[in-house]
Amino acid sequence: MRLEKKVIIVTGSCTGIGKAIAKRCVAEGGRVVIHGLEPELGQEVVQELGPANAVLHIEDLATEGVAERLVAVAVKAFGRLDAVVNNAALVLSSNLHTTDLTFFRRMLDVNTLAPFALIKAALPQLKQNRGCVLNIGSVNGWSGEPDLMAYSVSKGALMTLTRNLGDTLHREDGVRVNQINPGWVITENEARRKHEQGLAEDWYKDVPPVFAPSGRILWPAEIAAAAVYWLADESGPISGQIVDLEQYPFIGRNPPKN
């Protein structure tokens, strides 16, 4: 049991990568705070994991005071808090011409400022328990697709936050902060988005080799398996690190041959 007795907040865990991480945490002996915007889906996750292992909190991360309430839920339900997984994110298409300041601010509020607020609110508990933070970014944070401009900027800012706090909090408070950047992952929401963009319902079964050299894209459970290492004590003193989880090098990739 790599996470035995650890209590972990996983934002955005009613579906997708967050749900997979929460399930893997419980399988490894941990207890989790499930969070999201979908009460019915969240209740299903809690029922699957068991009320002794999971508790649900439904609230928009951009709401004032939500970070403090998430920490309070963890401490009330389980008596402590050992780790935070900042997974929740808005994934919306936009470019220079379609992005206004209201849209951009909303993206930064959820994808960058909410993780900052939760780390700050959780710090007393994390410091007391020699805990850690795992931020879930995106390979798009390095540059981004043409129509993921605001999203990519928010994830690039998250990487800088991870580097900065991974140094300062580790030295000053004994709290490690790291980040994993998933590539293309087949989640419920991603399947729906691509279908809405005109692709066939089973589009993920025939992804071009340029995007999926292995013949498929990533599964949420594969991201969850990697997340456990950073949440467990076995990652030791490592902090301030950014790790890409993709099936090809995102930066400096050799262009495909025609």
From TrEMBL:
One of its GO terms (molecular function) is oxidoreductase activity. Its EC number is 1.1.1.-. It is an enzyme of class 1 (oxidoreductase). It comes from the Bacteria. Keywords: Oxidoreductase. PANTHER family: EG:BACR7A4.14 PROTEIN-RELATED, ZGC:101858. Belongs to the short-chain dehydrogenases/reductases (SDR) family. This is SDR family NAD(P)-dependent oxidoreductase.
